[in-house]
Amino acid sequence: MEIRVEFFGIPRQRAGQSTAAISLTVPATLATLLGELGQQFPGLEGECIERGALRPGYLASIDGDRFVSDPFEIIADGNSVLILSAEAGG
Amino acid sequence: MIENGINIPPAGYHGAYLHVDVSSGTAKRVELPADLLRQFLGGTGLGTWLMLSLGASSQDPLSPEAPLAFVFSPLVGSPLTTSAKFAVVSRSPLTGRLNDSLASSSFALAGKRTGHDAIVVSGRASEPSILVIDEQQVQLQPAGDLWGMTIEEADRYLKEHQPAGSKAAVIGPAGEKLVHYATLSHDGRHAGRGGSGAVLGAKNIKAVVVRGSTHCRWEHPEQLVELARDLSDRSLGPATAKYRELGTAANLVLFNRLHALPVKNFQQGQLDGVEELSPQSLTREREKTQVSCAACTIGCTHIYGTRREGEEPGAVRVEYESLFALGPLCGVTDQELVLAATGRCDQLGIDTISTGGTIAFAMECVERDLLDAPWLCFGDGQAVLDAIELIGNRQGLGDLLAGGSRSMAEHIGKGSIDFAPQVKGLEIPGYEPRALQTMALGFAVGSRGADHNRSGAYEVDFSEHVDRRQGSPEAAEGAIATEDRATIMDSLIICKFLRGALDDFYGEAAAMLASVTGWDVDAEELLQVARRIAAARKLFNIESGWTPEEDCLPARFLSTSLPGDPQASLTAERLQEMIRAYNRGRGWEETGFLSDEVLQQYGLDTLAGETPASGS
Description:
heterodimer, A: alpha+beta, Ubiquitin-like (UB roll), five-stranded mixed β-sheet, two-stranded antiparallel sheet, 9 strands, 37% strand, globular, B: alpha+beta, Aldehyde Ferredoxin Oxidoreductase,  A, domain 1, Aldehyde Ferredoxin Oxidoreductase Protein, subunit A, domain 2, Aldehyde Ferredoxin Oxidoreductase Protein, subunit A, domain 3, six-stranded mixed β-sheet, 14% strand
């Protein structure tokens, strides 16, 4: 299946683009997706992502509806996953 | 501590504030006992105590009697990064409630070096003046040509005409004309919210100039330097990367994606074209420089070049709140016009959030045929600029807008208060309450009104612990926690952008305070200080006329779901449940009043006036 990933804040800076289409094998979890992102976007690995998990200060959201961090969270076909900086203050 | 009859202040403090009466030009030094300083720390905490003890809650904030306090803190002047900050505290002309606003600049360093922990100004000078304070004397000098100058012009003039080492907090034309959301500014930084600029303007004071060389000792300097070095290192790490690289403007595109971006006076949560205002777009199309506040290692200030046709090239400091308020909130996405509007607000000395909120409200009134100003339309960036000019100079329609959206709604009537974007009179910042409902609670109960700086409840919404679009009483605990942390940061004072870099906030904050003062303060004591200050703010507000009905949101947010995101809906009943949970969590009466026990617990009973703090 193909997942749409949207990057915001520092993740967008490190990925160098605002969106990406990532192919994953079903069933897929947040850890699977993050692991794939770490490989495809080396700028993310080490700063925003570390070995399939989000580093402190970063968040993921499924479809913009709910925030998740559990690596076993199931990612379903058709989901958009947002990767963002957690700090929202202005 | 008293030695040989002399009051020895704790390390980090001078143990006194200066009270200047600009009516008579006289000043007196008033001692601040060590136990009081330990209870209220400095900044907004000490400022709250000053306002209570000076009886400001019963005074018209624009009257000569009303006090305005510049409050420093034990950490000002220390090597701790971001600690060069001061609070400006008074009763607000915009809300009628307690107002504190903060700014970071070397004014804080120079002000504390005058030998005082705070400077209180009351009275009204007989002519437009500047107030000059150093260690030896207090002087009133005629403002002369300074009166009428913009913030930038006045700042530059005073740099050229005052002795080296002087720092000046100034008001712009809006402060002189008592615009209710006028700012007080120094060196491009603004104590923005709540109208402290109008309070100073009402005293006929254009600028407060400070200079001095009196330093406070630190109790454990080696430990302090070590803490400072470690904190500086962490301030350059991933926790602040967003602020350093992109600035707060990075919020804009994300909030738009989440339907959390207030658009067209909160009629929408998304707007096409906002990418135009993103830091990436701004950086691509403009020259950018980055600067830091005094004594700060983060460097979150992003300044972009402007080049409007027919005008000299300029530069504007860009923040999310200014972009949202003068852009999408008014339906505008034109980069050049939004930057021009931001820059003009800074020059005239008006709060960008209240300015944008008031103009957006006026635009909706025009749309609904409640206001006869057909030129003032959503999406028209030039109209926003024109309105700003009218507000700053209180000309024509600007005189009505100068009172803020609540005051306008009271004037217009016809149910317009239902969509006036304010709580307690303070315009709502850039967080759509229906999309971020813990923040909605934070806005409703905020002591100075709708406020994202005294409550960081949006952090709870940006977590997996709550459903951000279905707020519940369980979120109250998290909202209280963010308020308490902000209270300590604003009283010590250190920048909130450090919060992600502090793993054990209270423990680390206690260590900083202990290294400066030598007090055996710990995390639990600081938490109690935060609770005391929260109760003191509520006490002030009760004495100034607060009622539980004020802790609410405009009807718009409680009667309609967010267009484009029907799951984002909030009812009055659910909000009230959250508010009751908040009040219970604080240990207050469920209505928000304070029991005698709470007053005694925090030592506030001696400060309470004749107005009963309890609702029972």
